[in-house]
Write a structure and sequence with these properties.
The protein is built from two helices and three strands; from the N terminus they run αβββα. The protein has about 100 residues and is of the alpha+beta class.
């Protein structure tokens, strides 16, 4: 019994440690990726565009910025969002089942 408890504690601590490390990396250690160049430009109709590709000929007000901070969501936030989506999906399915039962009666 003690071995099972110890193994479970090690697994839980490892999971918490992984989530904490992932949170730290994705929220504090962010470096610019100098390979990415972003462009902003205005077309003939006056609409402003933001792309990572060269603007077409005839574009006005072209601005080029080198480097880009890519910020991915931490794993904890992704898990939370997936859980919420799953809850909403299950809730929707349950309400559909209740509506079907009411229609049959």
């Amino acid at each position: 019994m003690k071995k099972v408890v110890i193994i479970l504690l090690v697994i839980i601590c490892g999971g918490v440690g992984l989530l904490a490390y992932d949170w730290h990396v994705k929220t504090t250690i962010q470096e610019d990726d100098q390979r990415v160049t972003l462009y902003s430009w205005t077309d003939e109709k006056g609409a402003k565009h933001y792309t990572n590709t060269q603007p077409p000929d005839g574009a006005k007000n072209i601005e080029e910025s080198k480097g880009y901070k890519y910020v991915d969501q931490p794993l904890v936030v992704k898990i939370k969002n997936k859980t919420i989506e799953g809850y909403k999906w299950i809730k929707e399915k349950l309400f559909k089942m209740k509506d079907r039962k009411k229609k049959k009666q």
